[in-house]
Fold these 3 entries.
Entry 1:
Amino acid sequence: MSVHQRISNLCRAFCLLTLVFLLFTCGSTPPGRQLGGQVSVSTWYQGRKSALSLTFDDAMADQDTYVRPMLAKYGFKGTFYLNTGLVESGVFHFGAWDQFARILADGHEIGSHAITHPYLTRLSEGSEAQEGTVLYELAGSRAQINRHFPSERCLTFAYPYCDENKAINSLVARYYIAARSGRFNPSAPAWNDPVPSDWMGLISYAPLFPDVRASEADDLPELQNVQRLLSLSVGRGTWAILMIHSIVPFEMISTYGGWQVISTNWFDALCTWIRGNVDDSAVWVDTVAHVTRYAKERESVQISMESNTESEISFSLSDDLDNAVFDFPLTMNVSVPGSWTGAQLTRADGTTEDLSINEDAAALVSFDAVPGSGVLILRPQNM
């Protein structure tokens, strides 16, 4: 049996064990935030039990060559953190702007990893115009990304070397809606809560491999470890973030260079396992920016009831966030009269959508809506 087959078999076996784990630990989907007696917003998008973001650092060319096709294979969206000063530098394995344009076109997020990948705590605050300072790195990298990709906003940041402190965090908050650090404690693993305690210090974990890797079998223990850690996130309803750098075929690793390089077979096996949990409605896989927007909107949204009768329920959603940035749809759950066998949703723009009663919750319908998009009207299909 080949090493790849062994990895695939291990992945399938572990996935079955995880499903058993979920049955005993997760129960039903987390109820989410209650907005009124009848209306609530799901903790995670489309009622998933947990969230997961796959992040890729350092603007590596292999991320276009190997990562982008694999994410497309599984239907996942990731976040790619660029050191903008190293793109098209012609050194090491850094990529080019056209490669990251392809990544962006596939629906992935392009975030900032500073300009030169410095230890930010060793720099003075400085100014946006002063090279070698924190503000220059933070503002300049965002400006370069926005200039190359004007159709998208650069919204999130990843600390080079996970080097940060409270002073740096406060500066990052001037430019970004969230920032990814390390802070993962293997001895007491805990991921980001549905409302993270620190938006400028999101917890992430980087898979770690032996210094000497003679064959792909040497990587199997870390595959099991990452699956275990992600299972904990599912069981607790939290948001896991993985920090990844280069991904290349295993035979290239010994000569490729770089920090904690991952093999394509290892990542494919992990994605197979994640896909099984996505299909089981256990995990929502999306970018750091999307998960951040959803969580912040979820905690800020308010409801205004317009009508509440046997034949019509109507309401609108609002929040105090910047609508130009926070426009991600929330998954809403509405209790309807028991006489309804289904519902028709009419949005403010006149479009309609037929909704079925949730099989897991009697007289409950679910749909997605963006706060500030106008009045939402529910009427029974059978009347």
Entry 2:
Amino acid sequence: MTTTRFAVIDLGSNTFHLLIVDLQADEQWTTVFKDRRYVKLASEGVEIIGEDSILRAIEVMKEFSQRLLQLQVEETQAIGTAALREAANGIEVAKRLTEESGIPVEIIDGDREAHYILKGIQSALPPLDKPCLIMDIGGGSVEFILYRHQQVLFVQSFKIGVALLYRSFHQQDPMTQESIAALSSHLETALEPVFNLLQQYKEYFLVGASGSFEVIQDVMPKIQKERNWSELDFRNLDAYMTEVIQSDLSSRRLREEIPVERLDYIVVAYILIRLILRHHPPKRFFYCDYALKEGVIADKF
């Protein structure tokens, strides 16, 4: 059977992901190698990407380039999202990354990003009988996609990524109640289109895509666990997230489920997720570790 070795690189606002697969003629693929690095492009805001962030990104892309050579990758697609899309110097940074690593970087818009995320989710999750709200939390933006079966009902990218929220609201640790309330109010306003949408449906399912949801799926009981997705028992999720939200950095360090790279942004991420769950509680809650990069692969067929 003919195979093509293909790599996709997701240059996220917080994390760079590398996924190398063998594409097969029967529209199947097998993972050869995967890696992720916390670059934090948006750590200084999305208005402009700082030089320290650029240097971290260049170093990671050079390492990824060496890995592509070692594993004899035939085709590579490197995709820049919110941080590169929104920053005044985003195009310049993408050019520097391309020149330094030899990997062409393409910056995509929010609609195309959402398209790939949906393709990735649908390639993993089984068909579900209710409207499903995908929530993909990035450093620079959060993508919301509501779909039912093959019909897309709503797609929108919101500039409320965790790097931006952290920079604007998490200025003391632990966060003060005033800061939590201010952030919640900000999100209430920003997400009004989502809340208005959910009011139209008596029941919906929430699908959390990777990122901060990966931590949640590590600690919540599983109703069903499959290779690339889980259905979670989320009855105690609000209490768990509230405990983390109210904790200080030293306390978060003691939590084995939180990777050191997420110790800062996890608080604002949980405030965002908690707001959605309290505003419009879903009927069922799924975690999926497929998202943009798997959607790029699915789009190859």
Entry 3:
Amino acid sequence: MADPRPLLSLEAALLRLRQGADARRITAQETVATFDALGRVLAQDVRSLLDVPPADNTSMDGYALRAADVAAIGAVLPVAQRIPAGVVGQRLLPGTAARIFTGGQMPLGADAVVMQEQCDALPEKPGADADVAPGLGAVRVNTPVVAGQWVRRRGEDVQAGATVLPAGTRLTPQALGLAASVGAADLPVLRRPRVALFSTGDELVMPGQPLKPGAIYNSNRYTLRALLQAAGCDVQDLGIVPDQLAATRSALRRAAQGNDLIITSGGVSVGEEDHLKPSVQAEGELELWQVAMKPGKPLAFGHVRSPGAEPALFIGLPGNPVSSFVTFLLAVAPVLRALQGMPDLEPPAVAMRADFDWPRPDRRREFLRVRVNSSGGLELFANQSSGVLTSTVWADGLLDNPPGQAIARGDTVRFLALSSLVWR
């Protein structure tokens, strides 16, 4: 029997999902060591208390000098001092140079650095000036010199008082390095999203158990749990719930206690005989959607009451493994962002060339499993069925194809990298 409900666009579904998540936004904070903050979300701005770099320094090994002292190529200057990184040199006397190494602080009076590859080191001349350090010799400059060359200016990266990382930033390795560069040993972060996960269905068994006739291994439990962990969540895994109304309601009540979100897979298709829908309706509220996307048409959204606390959000994903995977990336990941007050970002699409034909598109928006080939185009996995989990391992991205849009070899299409969908 055809479903009479109109299809909901992915954009409309995402808007309603985010609105629900905004009402349940996480505000609790904790302080963690910067070393241990990878993947966490900043609760407050990180501001710099110092200039970075804190003083003018050199970006090259070479010689610090005054540009005006090199009137012509081949000028020879006595070397007055040696300045490795971490050492503060003396004021540079006119007509002299300082041997300096990458990161070394520029001595007062110097305004340029010449790379060592463009110089000749010369032995010390007899009777050298007493102000020149003995044993450092002289340097012949074999290139024109311009004031400011190879000098990193104080504060050119970060100025004191500047916000280097705004609240809501997910902390990447490079963000941790930036925080460390301004001296932040600890960072204020939001507590991790708490997500309960369970599966329903008497046909499900875990790997390692005997596979009876009619049974299948529960791959979605592994995929969804790992996706939640990759997104920085604390996961309460409630396992496989028996296909019984009382057991399902009991699992929902346990899942709602102390968690922000409940994720399930399967049992949300129209006309399906299961206990999940009546259980959520009894323990909270539920909307069943038919989203105009392929894979991933059925989607359930609502909440489950928790005595003495805010209700936990509920998202029921399709049971087919590819549908569950793709729907998580496109619908659940934005909810996790909204829960943590992160910016609402569209998936980062890249325009690429299709190296295949797709002559019979679906009326829904399609997300095709593709990967980048050696010539820089996209090749298509041969079997786009929502049950073919091997396609998600073979692919490195999704092709976002508009409804009814045929694709011919050479067309420009929208590519979404899988890694960016988890971490955006």
